[in-house]
Amino acid sequence: MAHPSQLGFQDAASPIMEELLLFHDHTLMVVFLISTLVLYTISIMMTTKLTNTNSMDAQEVEMIWTILPAIIMVVIALPSLRILYLMDEISDPHLTIKSMGHQWYWSYEFTDYDMMMFDSYMTPTDSLLPGQFRLLEVDNRMVIPMESPIRMLISAEDVLHSWTVPSLGLKTDAIPGRLNQTTFIATRPGLFYGQCSEICGANHSFMPIVVESVPVSHFEAWSTLMMET
Question: Which of 58, 88, 118 is where one domain is finished?
Answer without folding.
Answer: 88
